[in-house]
Amino acid sequence: MKISTLKYFVTIAEELSFTKASAKLFVSQPSLSRHIHELEQELGTKLFIRHSHSLSLSPDGEAFLQATIKTLEQFEQLSTMFQPKSHPEPPLEVVRIGFPKNFNRTKLTQKLEICKRHFPHLQIIVSELSPLELNEKWQSGQLDLLINLETYIPESIRVQATFLKNHLKIIMSKKNPLSHKQKLSMADLKNESFVLLERKESPLIVDYVIGQALASGFHFNVKTYVSNLAEGLSQVSLNNQQVSFIYSAMADSSLEEQYQVKFVSLDAPNNHQDLVLASPRVKTPTLETLSQILTE
């Protein structure tokens, strides 16, 4: 296990992107992938979970990251042990942020870049999980800051501010006759077949769309259930008469091109599913400043 490989691992974990880490480290992406593969082989576990459009740390990866940060900090102290220091560097501080998986990270990435400029010695770990998994981590004290769908935030957690506006949209093939519409009601979809997310993945939203269909006088004709966004997009792309749902904060235009689908706004009551920032569990000056930056 080499120190250079550990540094590569930390940078990839920070960026959650092999491409961005490659540019930052001036190391080719294939080389980084090989180093991480060898590290995972040596440890006997997966450090990263590779999604269709993103990368996240596995539970073992999160634990290994925190241990690696401490190890590298100690190594740095050893390497400079006998060098005179007029101003000792502050100790490395770690902040763990929870963020729902599959959501567009553009705003989060931009805000974290500002955070890093304010706190150059701050190590930020982002965990991308399902809304329910994020709540579990928050309740067990494994997260310092939580960004989650407001509908999933328990009453016991105080919401500080809205992080990102968000609502449900409809996914449909570009060949679907309804795809030229800018907005559709649930009643407009009564003759369509549906691709739904498995309820265990997002129970509140599945219950919401089923409830809206019943209120519009029909039952969903569900053709298939999927476990993630990529599966849903693929199903709709391959079947012109099947439709599904996506959050506006996930609905990147590049996905429309990649899967040849159209995202259409859903006109339905209470269709507000904003991402919110929970108030810090422990109010330290660092967390207070980070919270302000994230919600500005």
TrEMBL record:
<protein>
    <submittedName>
        <fullName>LysR family transcriptional regulator</fullName>
    </submittedName>
</protein>
<keyword id="KW-0238">DNA-binding</keyword>
<keyword id="KW-0804">Transcription</keyword>
<dbReference type="InterPro" id="IPR000847">
    <property type="entry name" value="LysR_HTH_N"/>
</dbReference>
<keyword id="KW-0805">Transcription regulation</keyword>
<dbReference type="InterPro" id="IPR036390">
    <property type="entry name" value="WH_DNA-bd_sf"/>
</dbReference>
<dbReference type="InterPro" id="IPR005119">
    <property type="entry name" value="LysR_subst-bd"/>
</dbReference>
<dbReference type="Pfam" id="PF03466">
    <property type="entry name" value="LysR_substrate"/>
</dbReference>
<dbReference type="GO" id="GO:0003677">
    <property type="term" value="F:DNA binding"/>
</dbReference>
<dbReference type="GO" id="GO:0003700">
    <property type="term" value="F:DNA-binding transcription factor activity"/>
</dbReference>
<dbReference type="InterPro" id="IPR036388">
    <property type="entry name" value="WH-like_DNA-bd_sf"/>
</dbReference>
<dbReference type="Pfam" id="PF00126">
    <property type="entry name" value="HTH_1"/>
</dbReference>
<comment type="similarity">
    <text>Belongs to the LysR transcriptional regulatory family.</text>
</comment>
<dbReference type="GO" id="GO:0032993">
    <property type="term" value="C:protein-DNA complex"/>
</dbReference>
<feature type="domain" description="HTH lysR-type">
    <location>
        <begin position="1"/>
        <end position="58"/>
    </location>
</feature>
